[in-house]
Write a structure and sequence with these properties.
This protein is an alpha/beta fold. Helix content is about 30%, strand content about 20%. It binds zinc ion.
Length: about 250
C-alpha cells in the first residue's frame, strides 16, 4: 500500500493543490496528521477536501480549537486571531467534521500516526532527548508525527543510537528517499503542507510504501504570493503572511 501522508495543511489551498498534483498516481490512500485549519485563508475548501478524500485523519491542536473543543489561551497572537477568524467561517458540516476527529495515536498497517507525540498531541518533538523518549515507547517500529512543521524526524538503529533524519532537498530537488531497515525504529515527520518552518518555503509531504518499506520525502513549489494575497484580503495577521515567504 502506498500512503500519501499530509500534515499541517493549515487552510493553505494553493499548497495543497500543488502537493496533490505532484503526488497524483503515486499513492493508494491518503492520511492526514492534523492541523487542517488555522493560519491560512481557505479553511472550508481545505476541510471539504480532507473530509471527502482522506482515508484516515486525526485532529491537531488548531482543529480542536477551531471547532470549540479548546479555548485559545495556548496560542500566540497570530494563531489566536486566525483561529477566531476560522471559527466564524467554518460551515456547520466542517465544524462537525473537526469535532468528531479522533486524537492520535492511531494504528494503520505497520505504523501509527500522531499529531505532536505519542502521549500528548500538543507536544513539540524538536530535541534529541524528546525524540529518544518517543522512540523508546513505540508500539510499532514506525510512527509518523507532525506539529513541528519540520520535515525529517529521528531514527534509532539496532544498537540504540539516535540519528536525526534530515532530507536534503535543495532547490530543484523534489524528493529524497529513505529505506527503512528491520530492527530500526523510526519517528518521522512528513513536513508541513501549508506552513513549513524548516527554512524551505516549498510545500512538504511524504509517500510511504508499506510493502517495500520505502519512504519518499517531497518538496514542491507553489504560488506563495497567491496564498499571501488571499490572506491579506481576509485581513489575517501580517506576521502570518510574511513567514510563508521564508518557511519560518
Ligand atoms: Zn500545525
Amino acid at each position: 500500500m502506498r500512503y500519501l501522508i499530509l500534515s499541517d495543511i493549515h487552510s493553505n489551498l494553493e499548497a495543497l493543490q500543488a502537493v496533490l498534483t505532484a503526488a497524483a498516481g503515486r499513492h493508494d490512500d491518503i492520511l492526514c496528521l492534523g492541523d487542517i485549519v488555522g493560519y491560512g485563508p481557505d479553511p472550508n475548501a481545505v476541510t471539504d477536501w480532507v473530509r471527502l478524500n482522506t482515508g484516515t485523519c486525526i485532529r491537531g491542536n488548531h482543529d480542536r480549537a477551531a471547532c470549540g473543543l479548546d479555548d485559545l489561551s495556548r496560542f500566540n497572537y497570530g494563531g489566536r486571531v486566525a483561529i477566531a477568524w476560522t471559527q466564524e467561517r467554518l460551515t456547520p458540516e466542517n465544524l462537525q467534521f473537526l469535532k468528531q476527529l479522533p486524537s492520535g495515536p492511531l494504528r494503520r498497517d505497520d505504523f501509527q500516526i500522531v499529531h505532536g507525540s505519542l502521549g500528548d498531541e500538543d507536544k513539540y518533538i524538536v530535541t534529541q532527548p524528546d525524540a529518544l523518549e518517543q522512540l523508546r515507547h513505540l508500539e510499532t517500529e514506525l510512527v509518523f508525527f507532525g506539529h513541528s512543521h519540520h520535515q525529517g524526524g529521528y531514527m534509532e538503529d539496532a544498537n540504540g543510537y539516535l540519528q536525526e533524519v534530515k532530507p536534503s532537498l535543495f532547490r530543484g530537488r523534489s524528493l529524497a528517499a529513505l529505506e527503512l531497515l528491520p530492527g530500526e525504529k523510526y519517528f518521522l515527520n512528513p513536513g508541513s503542507v501549508g506552513q513549513p518552518r524548516d527554512g524551505d518555503p516549498r510545500a512538504a509531504f511524504a509517500i510511504y510504501d508499506s510493502e517495500r518499506r520505502h519512504l519518499e520525502y517531497w518538496r514542491v513549489p507553489y504560488c506563495v504570493e497567491a496564498t499571501q494575497r488571499r490572506m491579506q484580503e481576509c485581513g489575517l495577521p501580517e506576521s502570518l503572511v510574511e513567514r510563508l515567504s521564508f518557511g519560518r
